Amino acid sequence: MKILRLCILAAGLLVLWQLLVLLTGAPPYILPGPLPVAKSLLLQWPILLKHLATTLTEILLGLLLGTLLGTSSAIAMIVSPLLKRWMLPVLVISQAIPVFALAPVLVLWFGYGMASKIAMAVLIIFFPVTSSFYYGMQRTDPDLLELARIMGARPLAVLRTIIIPSALPAFAAGVRVATAVAPIGAVVGEWVGSSAGLGFYMLHANARMQIDVMFAALTLLATASLLLYFLVDRLLDRLIYWQPQQGTNL
Amino acid sequence: MSPTLDTPHRLAAKLPMNAPAIVFDRVNLDFSGKPLFRDLSLRLEGGQATCILGPSGCGKSTLLKLIAGSTTLPFTGGLHLDTHSPGGQQVAWMGQNDLLLPWLSLLDNVLLGARLRHELTEARRQQALNLIREAGLAGYEQALPNALSGGMRQRAALLRTLMEGRPVLLMDEPFSALDALTRFRLQNLAARLTQGATVVLVTHDPLEALRLADRIIVLAGSPVEVAEILALGGTPPRDPGDPAVTSQYAELLQLLMNGETV
């Protein structure tokens, strides 16, 4: 049922796209229809796939590193109030800097390869993961903590058994946001300077007026991002096994 | 519910004997700028079940939290456990909310204290399994709290409290959120399994107090004072139809109503 609904939704979007082309009479170098785009998708499939692999690797590594970094920072801030006092302002200030503006600097520092794109994705992901996990842990039911205290609990056991699981729903919300924005980081990084990846290939095609190829790359990127999101959504639902129907109900 | 529930059983949780008395000695405490306790002196006998009754906001729960060391409110005066046993944790807590961890199975919830102290052993596990069987929860060991009824959850919370093996059990309206029948059965179970411990039970329900207590303390006034101490005969859990219970019920209600108007 879910898959059927998705298919109908996708078909509806394609029809809308075609209608837009027909109604506006836009030339193919401004807005190509779904058919020419599908054709270049098929023709360019091996090249597109190669670039997709690059971009996906950047996104996944960015997600992994960003989540790892975010969770460890959040735990460090919960464990050490001193660290929290120094880190929290840095975290907030880091969000005041438009991350995209840092892209050229990152490329300068980390080079044209994957590292700068991963760094970009990590920078974007870090904040939602850290803040959601941290505030989730902070909102642990005080009655539970009091119960643990009366039980004579060890602090690390409380962290592992009570505080971290309490924060997992909030953490999952942060990771969902992170998954949605990670591709932005990777693609922006590719735009600024790279020699591979779907973002790079889009610019490349754009410069050669291969607008249908550009759209093919865009479609592939959107589909891959969507699939990644659903996959992560599923995984997170598994992680929070005690809460049925946590994720998106598409 | 299992038919074994209301039949006498040996005590699966080994509660320590010689449970200590709790002594309040001229305790003064203010709450939100108003005096809650003024020179409150009180002795809660060791190894007995004491129920504390009184109007809402009179300080019943604060009294319990003081014993548990759960309040940050500053107080003066003495409060100590009259014990000869070596130090360490003496009290276990059970509240109105079951506080079961939704991500742990019933068995793991019952074993929570041991897990949090890194004291999980096979013997503990067996003890928990015995208790679970005794409470009529066999077959639900691996169930998550979300899959349990309110009564089952509160039973699990009671077992978790008993598993602590502490001589003093502090219970803050533990059965108030349950329906009448479930509450009745849980009261029986609690009375049976907590024998020998110093139980302090705060409740709104005079009948609950009459069923479970060896002594009932009625609090009233502001700052709060002990309005009455009733010593009850017989062994808990008492039958609600017991003439002694019914006659004292009316008396207790009257006392509580007088307390509200003080």
Label the overall shape of chain A: elongated
Give the SSE string of chain A.
HHHHHHHHHH
Oligomer description: heterodimer
Number of helices of chain A: 10
Class of secondary structure makeup of chain B: alpha/beta
Q: What's the CATH C level of the largest domain in chain B?
A: Alpha Beta
Q: Report the sheet with the most strands of chain B, covering strand number, pairing sense and barrel closure.
A: 6 strands, mixed
- Total strand count of chain A, please? 0
Number of strands of chain B: 9
Largest interface: A-B, 22 and 25 residues
Whole-number average pLDDT of chain B?
A: 86
User: Spatial order of the strands in the main sheet of chain B?
Assistant: 5-6-7-3-8-9
- At the fourth level of CATH, the homologous superfamily of the largest domain in chain B is P-loop containing nucleotide triphosphate hydrolases
Task: Report, as a whole number of angstroms, the end-to-end distance of chain A.
Answer: 10 Å
Q: Flag low-confidence runs of chain B.
A: 1-12
User: Which band does the percent of strand residues of chain A land in?
Assistant: under 5%
Structure description:
The complex is a heterodimer of chains A (250) and B (262). Chain A has 250 residues and is mainly alpha-helical. Chain A folds into two domains: 30 residues; 208 residues, MetI-like (MetI-like fold, Orthogonal Bundle). Helices cover 81% and strands 0% of the residues of chain A. In chain A, helix 3 packs antiparallel against helix 4 and helix 9 runs antiparallel to helix 10. The longest helix of chain A has 38 residues. Chain B is α/β, with parallel strands linked by helices and 262 residues long. In chain B, helix 4 crosses helix 5. Chain B is globular, with a radius of gyration of 18 Å. In chain B, the strands form two sheets. A six-stranded mixed β-sheet of chain B has the order 5-6-7-3-8-9, with helices on both faces. The longest helix of chain B is centred in the C-terminal third of the chain and has 19 residues. Helix content of chain B is 33%, strand content 24%. In chain B, strand 6, helix 6 and strand 7 form a beta-alpha-beta unit. At the A-B interface, helix 7 and helix 8 of A face strand 5 and helix 3 of B.
